[in-house]
Every structure is written in C-alpha cells, then in structure tokens.
Design goal:
Blueprint (H helix, E strand, L loop, with lengths): L2 E4 L5 H11 L4 E4 L14 H13 L3 E5 L10 H20 L4 E5 L10 H16 L6 E5 L12 H10 L6 E6 H6 L8 H11 L5 E5 L2 E2 L10 E2 L8 H8 L9 E3 L9 H11 L2
Parallel strand pairs: 1-2, 1-10, 2-3, 3-4, 4-5, 5-6, 6-7, 7-10
Antiparallel strand pairs: 8-9
Helix pairs in contact: 1-2, 3-4
The structure holds zinc ion (ZN).
Amino acid sequence: MRFGSHISIRDGYLGAARHATKIGAKAFQYFPKNPRSLSVKKMDRHDASECATYCKEHDLLTIAHTPYATNLVADKDQIGLVIDSLLNDLEIANECGSIGVVVHFGVLKNAANPLEGYQRMIGTLNDVLSRWDGEALILLENNAGKSGPTGTTIEELVQIRQLTEYAGKIGFCLDTCHLFASGVWDGDNWSEVEAKGIELGYFDHLKAVHLNNSAYPTRSMKDRHANIPYGELKIEQVNEFLASTVFGDIPFVLETPHESDFSHGDEIKFLNEMMG
Ligand SMILES: [Zn+2]
C-alpha cells in the first residue's frame, strides 16, 4: 500500500519529494504555500516541475492541502480571496504533478437557512472550476463535526459533487480521524460505511486518504489526530479499514503527531509491517 505523510516544503517542492523517499514514503502531502495565509504565491516553476519529474521517476503520488483559512462558504467580502487562493493552489499542485488539492467541506454557522451553506459552496466550486482547466482536481474532505454536523457524511460529499457543473474536476479525500470522530464510522461498522460508499459511488472518486487515528472517541466531534497505534481506533479496526478492497492505488497520508521518538518514517514502517 502507498503510505506516506504530510511533509514540509521548507526545502522546496523537490526537497519535500526527496524527503519523502528518505523516510520510505510512497506518497506525500504538502502545503503549496504558507498555510496561515490566503495570499497568492508566485511559484518557483522550475522547483515545481523538478518535483513532478522526481515523483514520476521515484513512483511517488502527491496531494496538496489548501491553507487553513480556505473557507468555501466565506462571506462576500472574503470569497474573492478564497477563490484566487484556491486557483493558485491548483496551479502549484498541477505544476508539481499532484493528483489534486484537498479542501475541507464548508460549514456555514448560524445560517437562517440551512441550505445556504450548501448553495454557497456549490457557487464557489463552480466559480473556481469554471476558470480551471488543469489536471489537478479539487479533493473534498469530510469534516470531523467540530463546527456542526455539516460535511461529515458520505451522502453530502457525493451530492455536492454532483450538484456542481464540474463534477469531473472534483474528487474526494477521506480523513479517517474525522470519519471516526463524527460517528459515521464508529470503529465497528466499517462494512456498513463501505456498502454505503459503494452504493453512492463515493469510492469511484476517492483519490486520497488522510490516515489518522483519533485522540477522542467516536461521536466526540473533535478533530484531534493521533498516531495509528495510539488512538481511540483499535489497531484491528484500522486493519479492517486498510484491508478493504474499495481503494485503488491511492495515497494514504499520515497527518499525525511526529515526535523524535516516533517519526513519520517510523509510523510508515509500522504500517508497512502491519500490512505485511
Ligand atoms: Zn485531514
């Protein structure tokens, strides 16, 4: 299986790719730019295209992750910034040869009309994708539920994709911590979740997994990632998930704590040994 982790671009995109091979990763995720800002970055095209070449040569698959403030349901005065930033992320990801850019499902809090959040999100996606004709996809990620239940279910993800005008440019990224924390996967009902995902066509468009354990129990709605052997999901449950036949050759990316005594390299090794 294609295990990897989130990697810093401190040493550039190519540097991140080199680091990935060093720690035994077969995939990685990176922030295309400063994750704390929505400002548009002038990319180093040379570095990005070298990253793409290196990844091809070393059989590495990559995904990018949008900055934290990328809110698909932002207010009128903010949404322009979000759209420009997301187009910039797509351009960088495309140049780096990545599958796509991960963005969280938008949650509109305290809306008078609960449909408004979904409508705004569809509008933002249409706006961005009408101006995008590269290969890189937008990868919608399921929420943990910390800002309310919106965007936690497979049904919502599939529906939103279908309701846009550009479904072909949208895929999914499944976060296992969020799926567990939201209660959709309680650790014991994987076969039901799997059956629903198959029925709705979710897995046909699943392009990446954020492979995280959860520091809090199922239905806690808390988004706190834990290392695979040290979270509320039992190792047998993680095993059952990974043994599922619904996944193609996609990245399984760790977004877990990485201390010196248990690095991402150690965690990837642990996963590879666990999967035999
Ligand atoms: Zn995630």
